[in-house]
Amino acid sequence: MNKRLWRIIIGAILFIVAIVIDVNIEWLNIALYLISYIIVGGDIVMKAVKNIFRGKVFDENFLMSIATIGAMLIGEYPEGIAVMLFYQVGELFQSYAVDKSRRSIAEAMDIRPDYANVKKNDEVIKVDPDEVQIGDIIVIKPGERVPLDGKVIEGNSTVDTSALTGESVPREVEVGHEILSGCININGVITAEVTKEYGESTVSKILDLVENASSKKSQSEQFITKFARYYTPIVVIIAVFLATIPPLVIDGATFSDWIYRALTFLVVSCPCALVVSIPLSFFGGIGGASRKGILVKGSNYLEALAEAEIIVFDKTGTLTKGVFNVQEIHPEGITKEELLELTSYAESYSNHPISNSLKQAYGKEIDNGRISDVEEISGHGVIAAVDGKKVAAGNIKLMKKLNIPCYEGEAVGTVVHVGIDDKYAGYIVIADEVKEDSARAIKELKEAKIKQTVMLTGDTKNVASKVAKQLGLDKVYSELLPGDKVEKVEELLAQKSAKGKLAFVGDGINDAPVLARADIGIAMGGLGSDAAIEAADVVIMTDEPSKIATAIKVSKKTLRIARQNTVFSIGIKIIVLILSAFGIATMWAAIFADVGVTIIAVLNAFRALNVKNL
Amino acid sequence: MKKKFILEGLDCADCAAKIEHAVNKLDGVKEATVNFMTQKLVIEGEDEKMPTIMQEAEKIVKKIEPGTVMKKA
Q: Where is the HMA domain (chain B) (predicted)?
């Protein structure tokens, strides 16, 4: 690379000297031009000759050699050398840009841990993460990368998950928490028990996904490579006609004039500039998305996202947290606090998710001394003596059994009715909580011109329609069995326009068939779920549904850039071709159409990597 | 059977497309993709023809982009 740069610089200086001094001795001038040509473009000519012997004629080395040598033969030395010079600058710039882009993404994905500190018999030794086994105890010091997935058994700390999730707020970890490989430990020393081998750990899964991504090509890329396949030969054939026919047919037309026009054609005929900017844009877009914690498995999926018309969400775990919480407390005759306290006590012996969420909402330590005579009635609820009062907590059936009249209206979620000393004391509603950014996600999707947002759920109609209303979804299908979801998605697929795409968003658990059936399968909360990473086309590493809108924005931006590059580079080339056929454009314009366009397109492609202001 | 290779030194996007096009035409190849940005060549082909496919693919790579080395990934 450096050698090439020096050659260009030295050649350029000689070239300028040759132009500036412009001595009257012709042979000296020509000698100077020739020397600078050899320094600048000697390797291209050599490659062209070698390739001809290999049976490969129409490559760009050959085209450039013919164009420049031809120009010098008809006496246009400065132009011949300038074309070669700028061509080399363009090539250098292009390979620098591609290299930089490859590297910047490798860096963004540089989450591979180098070693693991394994603790054995009170001794800590550094080993390759590959050699660590499940059950081994590892120590992670501040500043170190978590090498394998595990469970914290000692110490607490905050970890930086940004490399995995794009989330800049560090996460707190303490004993009992899971830690994921690839995160960076920020402050405390933590000791963890390894739960997954390196090959199965999060970091390996993500690296594997990223490294194998984007082998599927976008339509824009397929178009441009196909275009290039025909473009070069056609331009070269036209050039041959231009050089030979008009001077023979048209009166007064000279060979040198028409050959010059033909050579200009050859300069514009190189396809590489055209071709490189498209994969570069998509690569940038995929890289930019991964910085936001969105992994896209191929250019084709990034492209499809921009065409999404219908987004179908699974409810539990996608739009809602999938964790049950106390949502409403409706006391009768006592205070809210009392009702919650007594109910939590009565339910405290049970291990049911509902009793856990009650205990969590109550938030204080349960004093077992205050409870006695606990009686669980299966399918009904529980009756217990709390502080000497008879507390009955359960569903309507329990209230009816005890002859306690209770609220029988509709509620969203699971209702726990409470009777105290055979008198109704009110009810508590427990439900899955909507994620903080779900409403924003739907709003942003609408702003991104998504035609329909749909929610599928196995939950009851009441719960489903309340959530749908709260979030502003267009349609909701409730009380579905897992198999019904595929059917509904197929129905929706039939409704979309021919070009539009349907995306299904799920948490990756139990919805692999639906993920596969949709045009774009998006899995949420990819961290820790292998099934999701495998089944989906797009994996969102965090739990935020609003990332879907982000992904669509990245996709639209990338596509816009790719389209600009296609139209701009093909357009300029065709304009210059037409102008030079009529003898209006000079070889300088042709150099711009080749090298200038490449540089502009590559710089434009780089914008796809920037996802800060979408 | 699916085989992955790294095309070290792959520097030209149009050449990548040409390599992909040529490898796809080889006998026994179901699908071949060249990813210019990640410098990867993935060939899916019939098991028994794989050794010949690999040899031919290497020749194609050498012919289209002489500076490139085809390595097993």
A: 1-69
List A538's β-bridge partners, or say none: A296, A522
Distance CA B6, CA A105 (A): 17
In eight-state DSSP terms, residue A145 is: B
Nearest by CB to residue B37, choosing from A56, A102, A229, is: A102
- Could you tell me the domains of chain A? 133-196 (2.70.150.10), 322-433 (3.40.1110.10)
Q: How far apart are CA A555 and CA A450, in angstroms?
A: 13
What pLDDT does residue A210 have? 67
Do A209 and A188 meet the contact criterion of CB atoms below 8 Å apart? no
User: So what's the pLDDT on residue A474?
Assistant: 93
Q: Hey, of A207, A208, A223, A225, which one would you mutate to test binding to chain B, going by the most B CBs within 10 A of its CB?
A: A225
* Per-residue confidence (pLDDT) for residue A564, from 0 to 100: 93
Residue numbers of chain A with a pLDDT score lower than 50 = none
Q: Quote the pLDDT of residue A213.
A: 63
Looking at residue A560, its pLDDT comes to 94
Please tell me which of the candidates A54, A56, A279 has its beta carbon nearest to residue B36: A279
Query: Which one is catalytic: A314, A432, A519, A594?
Result: A314
Place of tokens 């000297």: A17
Q: How far is CA A447 from CA A319, A375, B35, in A?
A: 18, 54, 34
Query: Which amino acid appears at position A97 of this protein?
Result: A
Residues of chain B with pLDDT under 50: none
| Cα-based distances in Å from A561 to A18, A272, A557 | 41, 17, 6
What is the domain count for chain B?
A: 1
Interatomic CA distance for residues A196 and A203, integer angstroms: 11
A314 included as an active-site residue: yes
Domain span holding position B51? 2-72
| Cα A324 from Cα A483, distance rounded (Å) | 24
CATH of the domain at B14: 3.30.70.100
Q: What is the ipTM of this complex?
A: 0.85
